[in-house]
Amino acid sequence: MPVSTSSNGVPQWQRRTTRAQWLQYLAWLAGVSLFLLCWKVISDNTMWVFVEDAGRQGSDLISRMMPPRWEYASELWKPMWDTLNIATLGTALGIMIAFPVAFLAARNTTPHPLVRSLALTIIVSSRSINSLIWAMLLVTILGPGVLAGIIAIALRSIGFVGKLLYEAIEEIHPTPVEAISATGASRLQVMNYGVLPQIMPAFAGISVYRWDINIRESTVLGLVGAGGIGLQLNASINSLAWNQVSVIFALIFATVLVSEWVSARVRHAII
Asked: What is the CATH number assigned to the segment(s) 79-270?
C-alpha cells in the first residue's frame, strides 16, 4: 500500500486499498438510496397543492393576527398563573418521586439488581411518553383541569430527572464513600455524607433545568383540556380570533424568556 511519510518517518498520507475504496462507494450508494427512499415516502404522503399555497396562507394568517388585541391580555393573567403552577407543582412532585428512584437505579447505590431493573423501567416508561399524551390520558381519567396537568408534568419529569440523577450518582468519586464506609458508618450515613454532597450541585441544576422545560410544556397542555393558558389558545384558534392568538403567543414568549433568565440565574448561583 503506497504510504507517504515525513522526514522523521511519521505517516502523513496513504492510498486507500481497493477494498476500502469499494466499501466507501457502497456506503455512499446506500446513503443516497436511503435518502431517495425517504423522499419518496414523504412525497407520497404530502399534498403538494397545499405546500405550493403555503406562502400565501402564511402571510394571510399573519395579517389576521395583526394588530394584536392587547386588551385581551387582562383575561390571560389567571390562566398564565395556572400554567406557572402546573409547571412548578408538577416539577416538585416529579422531583420528589425521581430522587429515590435515581438512587435505586444507580449501580453503586441500588440494594439489588432486581430493584435496579424496576427503577430503570419506571424511568424509561416516564421518558417514553410525552407530557401531552400523559395529559390526554389523565384528562380522560381525572377530567379536565389543572390537576391533570400537574400530574402529567410530574410523570414526564420523573424520567428526565431520574435518568440524569442516577448517571450523576454513578459518576461520583468513590474515595469519600470508601473512607466513610471504613469508619463503620451505616448505609444511610454513607449516603448522607459520602454521596449526597457530591451530587447536590448536579441535582439542583437538573431540577431547575427541568422546571424551565416544564414552563414551556405546560403552555400547550390546555390544548387537550389539562388547564393553563392552552385552554385560551385552543378557544381562540377554534373561534378564529387570530388577534387574540397573537396576544397569547406574545405572553407565552415573555414568560419563557423570564423563566430562562430565572433558570440561568439560579443555576449560576448554585453551580
From this structure: 1.10.3720.10
